[in-house]
Each structure stands twice: as structure tokens, then as C-alpha cells.
Design a protein that fits this description.
Radius of gyration of chain A: 19 Å
Low-confidence stretches of chain A: 1-6
Oligomer: homodimer
Order of helices and strands of chain A: HEEEEHEEEHHEHHEE
Structural class of chain A: alpha+beta
Strand content of chain A: 25-35%
Helix content of chain A: 25-40%
Number of strands of chain A: 10
Distance between the termini of chain A: 45 Å
Mean pLDDT of chain A: 93
Shape of chain A: elongated
Chain lengths: 212, 212
DNA sequence: CAAATAGTGTCTCTAAGACACTATTCC
DNA sequence: GGAATAGTGTCTTAGAGACACTATTTG
């Protein structure tokens, strides 16, 4: 039975939306790399792998990230399933979209490009649609899903960085009210100010509590 | 290539949480039926099917519902993916959990049992875990996801029914405040009172706007 | 009338948002 | 001081929740 059943299934891939926040650019970036094989050879695409028998989604996401030459244990989570049958010209395939947060400074391999979520070029398959659909999810997860948020901010960050992150991902946010949002966050503590800045009052430094 | 790749994939099933609200019992019920084959032959289980090549999730959910002898086009949506490799004794398999809202009065086939979400007996596979995990989702979707809510309430309903539904799915809810929640709902209109009741002031009748 | 159920009036608390004002830095 | 950036005070609105009170029905 197993053989015939498997033959009738769609292929199942895990595609990863690898996100990082780059304070210098004041934007959230997503990691993409050119495909090495047809279809869409040479086109930029989200890193993805075929889900292996018995493999956990998180494991597959980690394998996907190795396509960007990113290794190590990064926070990941489910986004949603994309099931449009013609999304892959090779035939019907499912995409299980996962998010992953990449530490700032992890640039990945030579051919990895980090694009702003606002200004994404044309990607292979339905990957643009995947990004657009998941982006609203990300906006609602920020400051609500702590693993996700902490993954983007890193263990410590300044008010300014947090503000830029929030503006970029969620859009409208009043600067005057933003500190109140940070103060309400559980597991987050203010730790004095940042000494080194150029021009203007230095921002508060925030540190996530140990727990994790 | 296709053959070898498919052989290495987990099987993928779509399991449906078929929900209906039964005003008489003042509770949300989930449809389960005894399995006809091993494993777990005879055990109650969520209706599920193997996802066919090229099949949409919604189509698979509809096929699953036919296991409960429920046909017709009902609202469905994604819940989440369950990927624990040992969730099926036959071998690694993914479960794509979907919700479906069944019109009140649709009882399905002879062997279908409708269990309260509060008092669910032991189900096959990891189906209890699936229900528990998805239930928090349902609580947050009620009165926020209109397709979901409308599927549970039906096209028209009374304040009392809506209150019972909300209490059962989301827990705490103050009766005094509940009408305000209904008044805030977009696409929902009050349409006078229900004439026939026994004992007590008759509740308001609410009707969803045509749009759908 | 009493009992039962439905619905309103208020008050509190919290989050979100607007917006003027104050605070701290560098030049 | 002036420019630049960070942060507070305060007011408004909306939703959630508590809770007493009023309203409408049946018997």
C-alpha cells in the first residue's frame, strides 16, 4: 500500500522566510539566493528543501538555511501552507512556509542576498506571494510572540532600534508612545543608556531577561 | 528523480476538526467517527484523508467530511501542521489540521459521534493533542474571523445562542457586556426579538448581512 | 405578584494613538 | 545656543471586564 499511496502524493517542501533586522539600514531583511538548478535556475528564491521522511519541520528549516550557508540553532516557527497546484511547474507541490530569525551579522554565503521586505525583487515560484501573505503575520507577531521578537532584536537593543524595527514591520507607530510599549513587555528590562552616539540624546538600552 | 524523491517523503494527511454549535446543548461539538481499519481500528478519530497529488487542502477537507457523511460546501480553513514523526504507528506522517464549520442540524452518518470539546474521549493517533492545540486557536478566531464565526452561528441566531457559543469556546464572558460585543460586529444586524420563548424576556435576533 | 431571562448604565482598567512638551547629547 | 534625537505628560478613544440596575416575558 505504501508505495501506491506515496506515488499519489504531492511533493512537500519547507520554504523558509529567513528574517533579520539590520539596524544600520533600519529595516527587516529576508535572505534569498539564486537557484542552482531548473526550474527558475538563476532566479532568486527562498531557501527551501524537500521534507524528508520523518523529518521535523524545524529540522527541514535548518537544512534550508544551510542553503544560505547559515548554520546553528535559530528560532523558527510555522507560518502557513501554500497548496496551489500549479505553484511549481514540475507538478503539484505543497509549500510549508516557516519563519526563521537570523542574528544580525550573519550574512550567510557569498551569493546570499538580503532584501528589504518592502522592496523585494521577483522571486522564483510563488515566493513573492508567500512573502506578502506571511508579512501580515509577522506584523502581528512582533512584540506578541517573544521568540520571534527576541530573534529579531537580539539579546539587547536600543529604543531606536526597536522603533525602527517596529516601523518597518508593522507600519504606523508613534515615537512618543513607543517607550510605553517596551515598558509593558514582559521579560524586558531597561539598562541605562548607550554612551556612544553622535548627535542627540542617547537611547535607552534594553535587555531581555535570562529565562529564554 | 520524482520517484526517489517521493519515496523519501512522509505521507501527508489532512485531518478535519468538524465543528458545529448545538444551541440545545449550549456547546460546540466536534464530529468524530470510529476508524474502519487498522491502526486504531474501532477507535474514534477525526475524519482525515491522504492528500492527493494536486489536491487543494479545502478539497481534501471536503473529502474528509464525506467520512462523516457530510457533503456540501462548508467553510474551512487552516489550523496548523503536526509533524511529530511517531504520531502514526505506520510511519512518519504529517497532519495538516483544518477546521470546518458544519451547519447545525447536519448530523452526518449513523456512526458519527458529536463530542463536546470539553469532554472528548480518547481519540486515535495524536488527535486529542490536535484538538487541544487547535482549540486555543478557535477561541481567538471567534468574533474575529467572520467566516469561522458565521459558520458556527448560522445566518441568524439569538443573543442567548451567541452567548452560549462564546462561553463554551472562549470561556469567561460577562453576560452584561455581551450585547456590546455583538453590536460592534461588522455585518451583523439586530432584527427585533424572538416571539417564542418560555420564561423570561425573549432575546434579540441577529442576522448576518447578505455580503458573505 | 414571583421567577426567569435579556439588556442597559456606569465605572474601572488597559492598550492604542495623537501631540505638545521636556531632556540629553553633539557641534 | 542650535540642531538632533530620546523620552514624558496628558488627553482621547476603544475594548474588556465588573456589577448593579432595568426590561420583558411566563406562570
Amino acid at each position: 500500500m505504501t508505495g501506491s499511496v506515496l506515488d499519489s502524493a504531492s511533493t512537500t517542501s519547507v520554504d523558509v522566510l529567513a528574517l533579520r533586522f539590520r539596524p544600520q539600514a533600519q529595516q527587516v531583511e529576508i535572505g534569498v539566493s539564486p537557484r542552482k538548478w531548473a526550474p527558475y535556475k538563476g532566479s532568486l528564491a527562498l531557501p527551501g528543501v524537500l521534507l524528508l521522511r520523518g523529518e521535523r519541520l524545524t529540522e527541514a528549516a535548518t537544512r534550508s538555511l544551510s542553503k544560505l550557508s547559515i548554520s546553528g540553532d535559530v528560532p523558527t516557527g510555522q507560518c502557513m501552507v501554500f497548496d496551489e497546484p500549479s505553484r511549481d511547474p514540475r507538478g503539484p507541490s505543497l509549500s510549508l512556509a516557516m519563519w526563521a530569525t537570523i542574528p544580525a551579522g550573519e550574512d550567510g554565503g557569498e551569493d546570499v542576498e538580503w532584501h528589504s521586505l518592502d522592496d523585494l525583487s521577483t522571486l522564483a515560484f510563488d515566493h513573492n506571494e508567500i512573502v506578502v501573505n506571511c508579512r501580515t503575520l509577522f506584523a502581528s507577531m512582533l512584540w506578541r510572540d517573544q521568540r520571534f521578537t527576541r530573534g529579531l532584536t537580539g539579546e539587547s537593543f536600543t529604543s531606536k532600534q526597536a522603533f525602527d524595527l517596529t516601523m518597518n514591520l508593522s507600519g504606523a507607530m508613534n515615537k512618543g508612545n513607543f517607550n510605553r510599549l517596551l515598558k509593558r513587555q514582559p521579560n524586558l528590562e531597561a539598562r541605562g543608556n548607550v554612551p556612544t552616539t553622535e548627535g542627540g540624546r542617547p537611547p535607552t538600552q534594553w535587555v531581555w531577561a535570562q529565562s529564554h
